[in-house]
Amino acid sequence: MPHGVSWFNFLPGYKELERFLNEVFGSSFIAKNPLVAQHVVSALFVFVIIIVMALITRSFLIRNRENLIGEPKFSIPSFFDALFEMLLNQMRSIIGHNAEEHLPFVGTIIIFILFSNLLGLIPGFLPPTNNLNTTAACAISVFLYYHYIGIRKQGLINYFKHMANPIGEWWGYFLVWLMFPIELIGHLARPLSLSLRLMGNMTGDHAVLAIFLGLTLFLIPIPFMILGLIVALIQAFIFAILTCVYIALAQAHEE
Amino acid sequence: MLSKNLHRVFLIVVVLSILLFPILSFAEEAQGTDMAKAEQLKFMALAAGLAIGAAAFGGALGQGKAVAAGLEGIARNPSASGKIFTPMLLGLAFIESLVIYALIIAFKLAP
Known about the structure:
The structure holds 2 protein chains of 2 kinds. By secondary structure, chain A is mainly alpha-helical. Chain A is built from 8 helices and no strands. Chain B is an all-alpha fold.
């Protein structure tokens, strides 16, 4: 398949959708690409899959309300159980005692990114995280969320005071002219690095896989597909861990 | 804790600032004459190759050191291999992300 074409191009009404989106939105501000519909339709497909799995898990949980230990078989609810237990342990070791209230947000992020990355491994599909728009959307929501958490936990004035003066003593205020721009640049670099890391990894290994599939179809692409699988899992995990670290840093000064 | 009204005002400000992002899309690019563009393309291709080469070199060195430290830790204490493996993987992904930034710049220069 040529670059930018996936199985979603064969949906009925895809051309009209693409023309409509191009007229209404144009090329996006973040990454000027004319293929507006591709990542939107892929992301919607991933959302449909996630919602179906969530409904299955919900009906399972309602039926087995007294089941404390969990099912030993591999099924969709037990997969989510294991995944969120691992994620919650990591969050507890990073954030501390109140990790549960951040679990909905970080869990949504990791599930969306995991399934979007895994969609790219199926031949013919493009992952929605291939595109800077989707990853920038995730990164900007993380940015707004941890600032919101910091302001809610520490109060508006206190939060900026801690950003300007991390030391906390009265003589720390002499260095505000230095610390505040550095902190600001650091804060701005965080969503940039999150989005670019995820987008670069997905585009990069898709491109490498395309090159090697053009070379030979027989046995050589197998290590690159394994690499693609590993990279998909690791990048979702890294995004979630970095989100937890930023949340922990934003609420760090409350004790 | 913020009062409820301040909470609402904050949320409205955030939503409005997100919806006003497309205003920033009025940006232009620079063009040149045909001959100048051909010369420019040659240099941009060279720059892309050098960028990814230098990045891969530095990234491989860094990842080599990280994996060497991780393997030595596992060799000293094989029962802690799970605890060493996860931070080692995390560190490798961070180093790799720097190489990926250079790859993105190289793609932008010469797709």
